[in-house]
């Protein structure tokens, strides 16, 4: 029986699973009781944790999966070596149309690899892409790709831009989003062979391409969609994640220089906490894997219950707004 609005959550994925996942699902259902959710993982373990922690989750939401994909497992071997894992079985249920979306904070490479093989790519898409939201002066900038493909071709970057533009329009409500190509200078002749070739492809596309953007243009919000290969994109993402930690460390260091410094640091910390709320990955709702035949949301390995809840909400939003269908329709020229 097809259920294109149902969401299945990997209960075994992430550094703090399964408790944080169970708590995240409970938070989601408390806020939106009509959500159609199921959990997949080691059933007996999950039921025991639900009882031990007095969670109100119904045990009939659980689908059994005997294997667990560890963070250090090889993504290329997961389907063959752990066919009974929550990742593989969960994605198979999406492929069978029993669920419309799969949510996991587990091994990113394994989820991406298994999703590509089990769900298949949307017709006309060469490579799926993982995108992320980064806060900027004007709200959010999205970056595609942030790790799905460390090596890319110009056509791939065009596809990232196309999918990213549709995603941003539907999820963030930005009509005709501006697309920028990440490079080492604004001039079109700047960059490596990939960026120069990609520039020509994007320039001749129907997208709202504004040209090259530099790293500093991302926090400035110069473009709504920034495209690059996954090698560069992942470095950008990890650097952005580390910036908040650096600010906290510097404030802590400053507070040790005397009483007046301690007082100033306290006020600065309070102000920064409010001002930099958008930097908190827990509020992003995970990263979408665009380009596969099904909604897949990949979360940070350290995802908290709040992060899991928002990943579920992001999956629901993508299902309701038919993101994949709109990508397919655009590729078909409908």
What do these coordinates show?
The protein has 334 residues and is α/β, with parallel strands linked by helices. It is 45% helix and 16% strand. It has helices at 19-31, 43-52, 78-81, 86-95, 108-119, 154-172, 193-203, 217-220, 230-254, 259-275, 305-320, 323-331, and strands spanning 7-10, 37-41, 62-64, 101-104, 129-136, 139-144, 178-182, 208-213, 225-227, 287-290, 295-298. An eleven-stranded mixed beta sheet has the order 3-2-1-4-11-10-5-6-9-7-8, sandwiched between helices. α6 packs across α7 (193-203). It is globular, with a radius of gyration of 21 Å.
Quick structural gist:
With 334 residues, the protein is an alpha/beta fold. 45% of the residues lie in helices and 16% in strands.
CATH topology of the largest domain: Isopropylmalate Dehydrogenase
Order of SSEs? EHEHEHHEHEEHEHEHEHHEEHH
Total count of domains: 2
Full CATH superfamily name of the largest domain: Isopropylmalate Dehydrogenase
Mass-distribution shape: globular
Strand order of the largest sheet: 3-2-1-4-11-10-5-6-9-7-8
- At the first level of CATH, the class of the largest domain is Alpha Beta
Q: Could you name the ranges where pLDDT drops below 50 across 5 or more consecutive residues?
A: none
């Amino acid at each position: 029986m097809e259920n294109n609005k149902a969401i299945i959550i990997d209960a075994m994925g992430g550094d703090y699973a399964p408790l944080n996942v169970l708590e995240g699902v409970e938070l989601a259902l408390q806020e939106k009781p009509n959500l159609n959710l199921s959990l997949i993982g080691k059933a007996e373990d999950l039921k025991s944790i639900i009882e031990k922690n007095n969670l109100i989750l119904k045990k009939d939401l659980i689908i059994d999966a005997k294997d667990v994909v560890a963070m250090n497992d090889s993504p290329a071997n997961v389907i063959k070596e752990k066919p009974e894992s929550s990742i593989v079985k969960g994605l198979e249920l999406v492929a069978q149309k029993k669920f419309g979306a799969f949510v996991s904070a587990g091994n990113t490479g394994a989820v991406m690899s298994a999703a590509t093989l089990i769900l298949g790519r949307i017709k006309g898409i060469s490579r799926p892409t993982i995108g992320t939201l980064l806060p900027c002066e004007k709200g959010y900038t999205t970056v595609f790709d942030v790790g799905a493909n460390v090596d890319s071709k110009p056509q791939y970057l065009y596809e990232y831009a196309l999918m990213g533009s549709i995603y941003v329009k539907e999820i963030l409500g930005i009509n005709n989003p501006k697309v920028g190509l990440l490079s080492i200078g604004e001039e079109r002749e700047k960059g490596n062979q990939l960026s120069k070739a990609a520039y020509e492809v994007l320039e001749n596309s129907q997208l709202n391409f504004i040209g090259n953007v530099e790293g500093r243009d991302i926090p400035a919000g110069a473009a709504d969609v920034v495209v690059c290969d996954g090698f560069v994109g992942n470095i950008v993402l990890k650097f952005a994640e580390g910036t908040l930690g650096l600010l906290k460390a510097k404030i802590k260091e400053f507070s040790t220089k005397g009483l007046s410094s301690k007082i100033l640091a306290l006020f600065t910390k309070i102000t920064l906490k409010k001002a930099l709320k958008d930097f908190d990955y827990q509020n992003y709702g995970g990263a979408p894997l665009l380009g596969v035949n099904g909604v897949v949301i990949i979360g940070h390995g350290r995802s908290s219950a709040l992060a899991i809840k928002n990943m579920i909400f992001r999956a629901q939003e993508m299902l309701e707004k038919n993101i994949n269908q709109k990508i397919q329709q655009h590729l078909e020229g409908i």
